[in-house]
Specification:
There is one protein chain. By secondary structure, the protein is α+β, with helices and mostly antiparallel strands. The chain is built from 6 helices and 6 strands, in the order αβααββααβββα. It has 2 domains: 88 residues; 77 residues, no CATH class. The strands form 2 sheets. It has a 3-stranded antiparallel beta sheet. Strands 4-5-6 form a 3-stranded antiparallel beta sheet, covered by helices on one side. β5 and β6 form a beta hairpin. The longest helix has 27 residues. The radius of gyration is 19 Å and the shape is globular.
Length: 177
Amino acid sequence: MMYLQERDIKLLKMIAAYGILNNESIRRIYDDSSQYYIRRKKTLADAKYIIKTNKYAYMGIKEKRYLESIGETDLKQISGDKYARERLEKISEVLIPLQNVYECYPSWKLKDIEKLAGRKLQSYGKIRSRITEKEYYIYNLGTLKQGKNISSHIKIKAAYIKHIKEEIVQNALIWRR
C-alpha cells in the first residue's frame, strides 16, 4: 500500500488539469531535488497512479479513481493521437512555470476560443496577471528554420505576430460592444 504525500496529490491534480507533465514540471513540484522526483515518479508509476515515459507522465487508472473520490471532476483526458498529445505536452511546458505569477487558462478551458477562428490550434491558452489583471494570449508560431533564408523566416514570423495582434485588438473591440 502506498501513502500519498501532499506533493504527490499536487502532482496528481496538475496531471489531471493539464493531461500530461514533463520532467521539469515534476521536478519543480518536488522542490528541485535532484533524484527524489525520479524515484517518486517511478513509485507512483509502479502503483498505477501515473503512466510514465522517459520525459513525461500522464494519468493512470488509480489516479483517476483517487481524484474522483476526493471530488475532482475536471479531469483532462489524453487523446491517443500523437500530435494532440504533443500539443498538450507543449501547453503544459509553457503554462506550468507561469502559474506562480499568472492565472493560467489552457486553450480547452477558454470559452471564447471560437472567436480565434483559424488560430484555434495555434492558441495555447491565456494568462492573467494576478497583480495588474492584464491578460495575454499565448500562441505557437512554429520554429525558425536555420539556413540561408533565416531573415525571411524572421519576417514571416513578425508578420504572423502583427496579424495576431491586429486580430486580438479587433476581437477586443467586438467583445466590448
